[in-house]
Amino acid sequence: MKQDNPNEILSDVTVNEYKYGFVTDIETDIIPKGLSEEIIRHISQKKGEPEWLLDFRLKAYAYWKTLEMPHWAHLTIPEIDYQAISYYAAPKTKAAPKSLEEVDPELRKTFDKLGISLEEQMKLSGVAVDAVMDSVSVRTTFREKLAELGVIFCSFSEAVKDYPDLVKRYLGSVVSYRDNFFAALNSAVFSDGSFVYIPKGVRCPMELSTYFRINAANTGQFERTLIVADDDSYVSYLEGCTAPMRDENQLHAAIVEIVVHDRAEVKYSTVQNWYPGDKEGKGGIYNFVTKRGMCKGDHSKLSWTQVETGSAITWKYPSCVLAGDHSVGEFYSVAVTNNYQQADTGTKMIHIGKNTRSTIVSKGISAGRSQNSYRGLVKVLPGAENARNFTQCDSLLLSSDCGAHTFPYMDIQNDTAIVEHEATTSKINEDQIFYCNQRGIPTEDAVGLIVNGYAKEVMNKLPMEFAVEAQKLLQISLEGSVG
Amino acid sequence: MLKITDLHASINGKEILKGIDLVVKPGEVHAIMGPNGSGKSTLSAVLTGNPAYEVTRGSVEFYGKDLLALSPEDRSHEGLFLSFQYPVEIPGVSMVNFMRTAVNEQRKYRGLEPLSATDFLKLMREKRAIVELDNKLASRSVNEGFSGGEKKRNEIFQMAMLEPRLSILDETDSGLDIDALRIVAGGVNKLKSEKNATIVITHYQRLLDYIAPDFVHVLYKGRIVKSGGPELALELEERGYDWIKKELGEI
Ligand SMILES: Nc1ncnc2c1ncn2[C@@H]1O[C@H](COP(=O)(O)OP(=O)(O)OP(=O)(O)O)[C@@H](O)[C@H]1O
Ligand SMILES: [Mg+2]
């Protein structure tokens, strides 16, 4: 009649299946595997791109060839054969769909299954959605309504055609193709993504959101997002992502660039739920992403909020370059790892302007045999008078086999800077779990509640519409996790 | 409803309960008293299924079911409630969310639909009134930053929400001021019926002045060494435990 110890009970509970693991049976246009100048020309040609963009790609490719994959992160990354990946896959459609009716029904079903009914989104939530399947943007809703305000929200490819000057001016201005290995790779082969421009003085009246989905096998996804907020504008942008369950790993190497002008504000929220691999660590997405925003203008503000639950390996540091005087950068992160997932994530706050402020709140939650690292840099340049940074970095451990690590770097070159750092590491409290149990709440739900409570400060930063979804996601990704 | 037979339990290999026998019937109030460290909280933890404790011998029957075979949450669903001696804080989890999850889990177990948000909030309001729990507390995180007395009041509020068949109140009186004691005990009495029963763990007669026990037991070194009526509590209040130890031949 021995009573189980809590760890046993916790690890007994079955692991939840990844809910988005289905594959859509849809005709896909995939180019042959491999990476070469020829392939890049092929992609560019398929997309009917102008010469300057092809040049950009080729330069990036030439530079990428001189690089080696970085190994400084606290990650164990298996060798990736870049020649075994197909760099372009698109759902086959005739011409670009003009209305929802023209979108392939299979494709629409996919997004319905993901809980992203484009029509519903349009009618009810007032959230404008751009859906990117494999490499191609499927449909952007609400375009007309936004156009009235002069807000541009479209796929990257369309932006290249319709707004070449804007794209030319800002592409690579924040994340140069020389930035790092994956940025160079993305710049060479990126296929699509979203483009946002908010004109001067416009407060975007709705959340803009993009859903990314990898469907085809053996492909990589390399999308690029470019957001420009002109003087005195505001936009809140949300990104969500899922992928089918496959035994092999798939590569996702994206770039997000944001430019924030005088007194403008951008909120960028991510709910990242790429397929994390199975219980034994087989399969899953390698998520190697470069995200950076430039607070170019005085009094500009950029706020990153991320809820990271998916991917086999995550390598991602959404950063703020605080160039404008009085500019503000924020980073709120919840990173959950379970089973054999690995995450090395954090941020960089680069203080350049005077009176710049940054806030970093990171909540790492690790379970199973996962590894979860926070890596952050706070850099204050000599001219950045009165820079302020506050960093709060908490780790919660749900098992004894997982790892939590923090790597805070500071590089302070101005004496007037005030930089504060707080860090805590704790184990999930068994008394809390039992208290919930006693009130009739099973352990899985108890863990979900407790973890959501732990991450509340960050979850509260998400737009209302997505907070509920994100809460469920946290709970689901931790089911059967403690032990 | 509850039948404990020869219950032995230990923690970290150390035996704390050394053969407990107790029968509780619907409508009854049992008081358990006993010196510090005698095993009162251990008994309540073992009955509610706290996994830190290991039951090494004996059995517990609850409404004909083998209680020890049930998970802690199912014991709760079956109608067992513990008002903790030291309620834990759960930061960031609102009382509303917590209680709603608890109530709906119980309903699920009983094959009922979850309560709608409106019905739930109505229920909260109704039950809050029973222990005069401030709305401000009900909208905060579970026990976070609550004073000692507020935590105890919050326990009885939860009891009111879950309408248990058997409640164990582990030193619910400690930390309550004089008025709060009256209100909280009044709440417990309001919840009392012929169908449910209460086990009151306490050190003091003052609580038993409000919640009148039918039986009083003395737990000492992991055993119930003496049982009697309400007069036993009065006697303990007056004389302490030495005379019992003497009876046991310890002094
Ligand atoms: N983890 C543990 N390891 C060893 N002994 C323990 C542990 N937890 C509790 N005990 C012991 O078990 C005994 C019974 O404790 P319990 O909390 O049940 O007493 P109690 O009767 O409720 O006392 P009080 O009146 O002070 O609340 C005590 O001697 C206590 O020290
Ligand atoms: Mg006790």
Key attributes of the depicted protein:
heterodimer, A: about 475 residues, alpha/beta, ten-stranded mixed beta sheet, about 35% strand, globular, disordered N terminus, B: about 250 residues, Rossmann fold, 10 helices, 12 strands, binds magnesium ion
In the CATH classification, which architecture of chain B applies?
3-Layer(aba) Sandwich
Q: What ligands can be seen in this structure?
A: adenosine-5'-triphosphate, magnesium ion
Mean pLDDT of chain A: 81
Into which percent range does the helicity of residues of chain A fall? Answer: 10-25%
Q: What is the third-level CATH name, the topology of chain B? A: Rossmann fold
Radius of gyration of chain A: 22 Å
Main beta-sheet annotation of chain A: 11 strands, mixed
Poorly predicted runs of chain B are none
Strand content of chain B: 25-35%
Work out the count of structural domains of chain B. 1
Largest sheet features of chain B = 6 strands, mixed
What does this structure look like?
The complex is a heterodimer of chains A (483) and B (251). Chain A has 483 residues and is α/β, with parallel strands linked by helices. Chain A is built from 13 helices and 23 strands. In chain A, the strands form 3 sheets. In chain A, strands 5, 6, 8, 10, 11, 13, 15, 16, 18, 20 and 22 form an 11-stranded mixed sheet that branches. Chain B is α/β, with parallel strands linked by helices. Chain B has a single domain, classed as 3-Layer(aba) Sandwich (Rossmann fold). Chain B is 40% helix and 28% strand. In chain B, the strands form 3 sheets. A 6-stranded mixed sheet of chain B has the order 6-9-10-3-11-12, with helices on both faces. In chain B, strands 2-1-4-5 form a 4-stranded antiparallel sheet. A two-stranded antiparallel sheet of chain B has the order 7-8. The longest helix of chain B is centred in the middle third of the chain and has 15 residues. In chain B, 43% of the residues are buried. The model of chain B has no long low-confidence stretch (mean pLDDT 95). The chains are: A alpha/beta (483), B alpha/beta (251). Chains A and B meet through helix 10 and helix 11 of A and strand 4, helix 2, strand 7 and helix 3 of B. The structure holds adenosine-5'-triphosphate and magnesium ion (MG). Adenosine-5'-triphosphate binds next to strand 2 and helix 1 of chain B.
